[in-house]
């Protein structure tokens, strides 16, 4: 069974959703027969590549909210994340274009390290306040999880996975995704948002039952 997860490495709910999916999988008796594939989705593809800016004032301006109101909303997300064992400091965050990060995740998939890279990028951004928007920021993280530095630099320089990243975004749109995280099981069942682990487990159980139904007596 395949679970595809559309996600962005700067999406706070995506990291929460990842933890909840992991909890659901721990309780799923057929987890050893489940493949998790990370798909690319940019929260804000309009940010020019190479540019960064503080997240808090940018979000306040985007949604037309006072900065302090946006800060309070961020605290709510931080409290939710803490419930999943994650330590966020969202008001101090910096935003940028995540295309290169998504290209790196696709490269990692070629080496069986996609899940490890996805986790490392999320952890770096949300719990270490490290940037994930340029080659020099991404290379050390990739090397940590076992990728070759020269290959990473070459792949990000020639953008060999850019088409795959953009194709993921088009597929998400075709499947009806309007935000992330977006979970799809065997291209038959879906769940939008950082759903509770119980709901994700129900999704897995339903998909499995229809995949391998128990023969009737």
Descriptors for this entry?
single chain, 217 residues, Glutaredoxin, 4-stranded mixed β-sheet, two-stranded antiparallel sheet, 9 helices, isomerase, oxidoreductase activity, DSBA-like_thioredoxin_dom, Thioredoxin-like_sf
Write structural notes for this entry.
This protein is α+β, with helices and mostly antiparallel strands and 217 residues long. It has one domain (2-211): Glutaredoxin (3-Layer(aba) Sandwich). Helix content is 53%, strand content 12%. The protein is built from 9 helices and 6 strands; from the N terminus they run E-H-E-E-H-H-E-H-H-H-H-H-E-E-H. It has helices at residues 12-26, 55-63, 67-82, 99-110, 114-127, 135-144, 149-158, 162-174, 197-211; strands spanning 2-7, 35-40, 52-54, 94-96, 182-185, 189-192. Strands 2-1-5-6 form a 4-stranded mixed sheet, sandwiched between helices. Strand 1 (2-7), helix 1 (12-26) and strand 2 form a beta-alpha-beta unit. Helix 2 crosses helix 3 (67-82), helix 4 (99-110) runs antiparallel to helix 5 (114-127) and helix 6 runs antiparallel to helix 7 (149-158). 33% of the residues are buried. The model has no long low-confidence stretch (mean pLDDT 96).
């Amino acid at each position: 069974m395949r679970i595809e997860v559309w996600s962005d490495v700067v999406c706070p709910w995506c990291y929460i959703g990842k933890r909840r999916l992991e909890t659901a999988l721990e309780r799923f008796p057929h987890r050893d027969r489940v493949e998790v594939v990370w798909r690319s989705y940019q929260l804000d593809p309009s940010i020019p590549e190479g540019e960064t800016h503080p997240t808090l004032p940018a979000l306040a301006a985007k949604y037309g909210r006072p900065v302090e109101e946006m800060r309070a909303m961020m605290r709510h997300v931080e409290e939710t994340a803490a419930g999943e064992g994650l330590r966020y400091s969202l008001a101090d965050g910096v935003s940028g274009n995540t295309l290169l990060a998504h290209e790196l995740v696709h490269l990692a998939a070629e080496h069986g390290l996609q899940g490890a890279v996805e986790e490392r990028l999320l952890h770096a951004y949300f719990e270490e306040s490290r940037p994930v928007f340029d080659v020099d920021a991404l290379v050390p993280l990739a090397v940590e999880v076992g990728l070759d530095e020269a290959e990473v630099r070459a792949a990000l320089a020639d953008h060999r996975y850019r088409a795959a990243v953009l194709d993921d975004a088009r597929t998400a749109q075709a499947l009806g995704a309007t935000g992330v995280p977006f979970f799809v099981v065997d291209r038959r069942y879906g769940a939008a948002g950082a759903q509770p682990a119980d709901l994700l487990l129900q999704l897995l159980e339903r998909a499995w039952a229809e995949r391998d139904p128990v023969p009737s007596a």
